Amino acid sequence: MRLKDKVIIVTGSTMGIGKAIAKRVVAEGAKVIVHGLEEDLAIQVVAELGAENARLHIEDLSNEGAVQRLVDLAISSWGRLDAIVNNAAVVAASTIDTTDKAFLNRMLDVNTIAPLFLIKAALPPLIESHGAVLNIGSINAWSGEHNLLAYSISKGALMTMTRNLGDSLFREHGVRVNQINPGWVLTEKEIERKREHGLADNWYKDLSKLFAPAGRIIWPEEIAAACIYWLSDESGPISGQVVDLEQFPMIGRNIPKDASTIPHK
């Protein structure tokens, strides 16, 4: 077991990528704090993982003191904290015309500011355990789609934060900070968003190779599998790194001239 006896907080772990990560870290021997807003789904996740392996915290991360309460729950439950996975995020479409200050602030609060202050709250026990931080970003951090402006800004800021803290925290305290940027992943939320756009529930079964060279998009479990390396001791002294997990290169990809739009991720 690659994470035996480690204690890990995974934010946004009631569904999608976060749920897959929570399940995988427990399978690798860790204890996990399950976090999210959907209490009914969270209860199901904890039941699936087993009460001996998981604890539950339901709260908006932008609430005052929320991140400290997550850390306190880990310590009170198992006496230590070895890693945090900043996965929780708000994903919502916006352009420069539809992005107002309140919308951008909400996006930044959850996607960028909350991860920063969870790292800060978790730093004392992470220093003690020589622990790790894994931020879950997005390939939209590099520039983003035209209708994901505010989301892309928030993920770009998260990526800069990862590189900054990945140097300073490891150099000063021995705490590694790295990031995964997933591409297009088949989550429950993605299916719901496409339904809202008028697509059939099985839209993902017949995708153009233009957008998905494999003929399908990425499964949450595939992202979770990649996370284990960064959360385990196997990644050694590697810190401040950002890894894109997509089917095609984000820089230098040749898009046919007749491709007018790319679906949201």
Automatic annotation (TrEMBL):
- Domain of life, source organism: Bacteria
Looking up PANTHER family in the UniProt record yields:
EG:BACR7A4.14 PROTEIN-RELATED, ZGC:101858
* SUPFAM superfamilies referenced in this protein's UniProt entry, alphabetically: NAD(P)-binding Rossmann-fold domains
Which Pfam families does the UniProt entry name for this protein?
Answer: adh_short_C2 (PF13561)
Lineage runs: Bacteria, Pseudomonadati, Bacteroidota, Cytophagia, Cytophagales
Native source species = Algoriphagus chordae
Q: Which CDD domains match?
A: SDR_c
Q: Say which family it is in.
A: Belongs to the short-chain dehydrogenases/reductases (SDR) family.
Name the chain's protein: NAD(P)-dependent dehydrogenase (Short-subunit alcohol dehydrogenase family)
